[in-house]
Amino acid sequence: MLAAILHAPRDLRIEELPEDQPGHGQVAIRIRAGGICGSDMHYYLHGGFGTVRLQHPMVLGHEIAGEVLATGHGVTTVKAGDRVAVNPSLACGRCRFCLAGQSNQCLDMRFYGSAMRVPHVNGGFRQQLVCEESQAVKLPPDMPLEMAAFAEPLAVCLHAARQAGPLLGQRVLVTGAGPIGALAILVARHAGAREVVATDLSPSPLALARRIGADTALDLRANPAALEPFGADKGYFDVVFEASGSGAALAGAIGVARPGATIVQLGLGGEVPLPVNTLVAKEISLRGTFRFGEEFAWAARFLASGDIDVAPLLTEVVLLRDAKRAFELAADRSRAMKVQLAL
């Protein structure tokens, strides 16, 4: 089979790998669609992020969907020919966090396309993959696999929404209108938010934000003071999803969040200074959110039913042999929201 293997920053090669056979409780899947994520871009452009660095060649990709080729002994939930979304998380099921229902915090997590472990865990940008039965989430037979490949990033945003608490009737701010910010807008709307405001530094994602449900989309590069009116009378927003990873965006969010508001930090960035006095005085809850658990299956169901429509986010589907072009396109925010590989 062929796979997209990263050897070093911008050194992405299409190479052959041996195919695996499913063992007991495992499923062999013909991968058909794979979305390029922000973490894939960090590996491609910079060789990693923070302390997580590429130590040896690794197959990228974790937003994947495909068709079951074969099943090992004991598999009962899927069969050959079924369409599936593939959950890239494989928690150990034994550590104290798994036993406490926090599998996303697993101490021995295996996550596709991640260099956190050495040897690294190869990802899903390959034509065939063997996973555990629990990772293969069955889909309707007519569901487009391009839409199914959004299950992972949508699950991230569903988990973030649970961190925020009930969104019905809430005023929501989304800072950063890239793929995760856009999905956060869709989730907030689905959950009944009465108003959604989005911010970004680029007009292209803001135009899409308006299209998918943002009431207001503010270009903070063109008008750095655009959020200031929302800071009157101690703030306006009940919930903030900070999806940019920018310290300036987080500080701005604290300024426009009302007393008692919840800010959920979705975006990953470096260490940033905080206006702690304001955070304390306004009794704001600042919450992290990391990956997902049962929300992956929820995401697959929302996508299958059409309750959350992600089709507007898909910019282009690029053939595996042109993977380098796909990554270069995904790096251009003026042209791309979500780029996928057809494997």
Keywords:
seven-stranded mixed β-sheet, single chain, alpha/beta, 26% helix, 343 residues, six-stranded parallel β-sheet, globular
Task: Note poorly predicted spans.
Answer: none
Number of helices, where a helix is a run of at least 4 consecutive DSSP H or I residues? 10
Q: What is the share of helical residues? A: 25-40%
What is the residue-mean pLDDT, rounded to a whole number? 97
Please tell me how large the radius of gyration is: 20 Å
Would you give an account of this structure?
- The strands form 5 sheets. Strands 3, 7, 8, 11, 12, 19 and 20 form a 7-stranded mixed beta sheet that branches. Strands 15-14-13-16-17-18 form a 6-stranded parallel beta sheet, sandwiched between helices. Strands 2-1-6 form a 3-stranded antiparallel beta sheet, covered by helices on one side.
- 26% of the residues lie in helices and 29% in strands.
- By secondary structure, the chain is of the alpha/beta class.
- The N and C termini lie close together (10 Å).
- Strand 1 (2-8) and strand 2 form a beta hairpin.
